[in-house]
Write a structure and sequence with these properties.
This protein is an alpha/beta fold. The strands form 2 sheets. It has a 7-stranded mixed β-sheet with strand order 3-2-1-4-5-7-6, sandwiched between helices. A two-stranded antiparallel ribbon has the order 8-9. It has helices at about 10-20, 30-40, 65-70, 80-95, 100-105, 140-150, 170-180, 190-200, 220-230, 245-255, and strands at about 50-55, 75-80, 110-115, 125-135, 155-165, 205-215, 265-280, 280-285, 290. The model is unreliable at about 295-303 (pLDDT under 50). The two termini are about 40 Å apart. The chain is globular and about 55 Å long. α7 (about 170-180) crosses α10. It is built from 10 helices and 9 strands.
Amino acid sequence: MSQPPTLPLEPAHVIRQFARRAPLDKAQFLYGEIAQRMLQRLSYIKVQPHAVMDAGCGAGHALEPLRARYANIDYTGIDACPPQIRAAIDRYATRPSLWQKLRNKPTQAARFLVADMADTGQPPESQDLVWSNMALHWHHRPHEVLAEWRRVLKTGGLAMFSCLGPGSLKELRQALAEAGIKTAVPQFVDMHDFGDLLLEQGFADPVMDQEVITLTYRQADRLLDDLRVLGGNPSLGRTPGLVGRDWRGRLLDALQKQRHLDGTIHLSLEVAYGHAWRAASRRVSSGETRISIDSIGRRPAGG
């Protein structure tokens, strides 16, 4: 890959969009479902993490599902949106969680920190698992995020993530064009490019797969409502307030024309899933090979 992909997003606008939606409970119809599909994939991987960093944690909805799988994890949630972190602290860090009550045993206190996914402030080689659910496509420099994940992972640690791919929102793009509404819409990175980026950033054995999830609606305005709930449109070049007073009506009319034989309107979401292991060494552009501090001095078993 000659140039790493940069998404046309305004970081401050992303934060504002998600600040308005804290604590993201209404978005869990999709985000929670994707988290469960990630956990199912994780169940096939032999890993027993202790230190877990949740990158783009939002209000911490992944904490209890992860604890249900790995009871004694040392969990750190990272998100750039202060209202989301405040919601997470209020919900999980100041009171016993449901999982704690069910286990009737103490668990390690969760930490929630305001930080960019590409600059988490965590010590190098401190994490066994980086988990990131539906967050990577909201960062304008995903290659820097992957580099940060490698930095904080221990040698042999696992990064696991989900994000939207370029096949998403095709019905919305078609409706905007038909309605004559000229505005930017979110763009996404192809999963194959993420596979290449993982290798370039020093990960080993990347595995990428994808699926298309189709949301169906009886009413076009419900589709637009869900798009707002899921994060809105923080794209660079987006027209504020769109154009004119009748834009919403024109867009709804265009969506109505897309009804299928069963009367429903569809919204396609291409969801990419990826995981890869943090390699011990990494070859950089200068030709140098940089070796993990954690791996120095190790000998093969029996040596």
